[in-house]
Design a protein that fits this description.
4 helices, 2 domains, 165 residues, Nucleotidyltransferase, domain 5, 5 strands, alpha/beta, 19% strand, elongated
Length: 165
């Protein structure tokens, strides 16, 4: 009896193998490629999503498509930023002029005094807007630093314009 059972078992296994085989060689090749296609799709999705997940801190500006014609009335608070050469240390220094006083954009103490001055002036105003006239040579980082100081002081809108020559 034992030899018969082995024979039945082998027939059953071969019958099961035939049931679960799909088509010809092209179908087996396609099934073997499925995991690799999955890997490629996942890598592609990761590359697409990666750019959206990394966020760089900064300010977003919606620029108009037409030439700039917006502006601000001249009775608003006005600050002037210029870049000057340092006499002793070399390099450039950015100066901010507000209410006939001079502040250095690189000095944190002077920026704190400027913030207090802006707060006191804004308490007297009915609108919280600032016109910032900047020279072409003023570094972008200094402009953003000043805009952040003005925002902390309570300024709601800043119009950044180029200082006329």
């Amino acid at each position: 009896m034992k030899p018969i059972r082995k024979e039945r078992l082998s027939r059953t296994m071969s019958r099961c193998r035939e049931i679960y085989r799909f088509g010809g060689p092209w179908a087996r090749a396609a099934l073997a490629a499925v995991p690799w296609v999955n890997v490629l799709v996942l890598v592609g999705l990761l590359f697409m999503v990666h750019g959206r997940l990394v966020m760089t801190p900064g300010m977003m500006f919606d620029l108009p498509s037409a030439p700039l014609r917006e502006g601000m009335l001249s009775d608003r608070l006005t600050a002037l930023m210029i870049s000057v050469d340092r006499e002793n240390a070399g390099g450039d220094e950015t100066l901010i002029f507000f209410d006939d006083d001079r502040y250095s954009a690189q000095d944190a103490d002077q920026l704190a005094v400027l913030s207090e001055r802006l707060r006191s002036r804004l308490s007297l105003q009915s609108h919280f807007e600032l016109l910032l006239l900047a020279d072409k040579r003023v570094p972008h980082g200094d402009v953003i630093r000043f805009v952040n100081v003005a925002r902390e002081a309570g300024v709601q809108r800043v119009c950044v314009a180029e200082k006329p020559e």
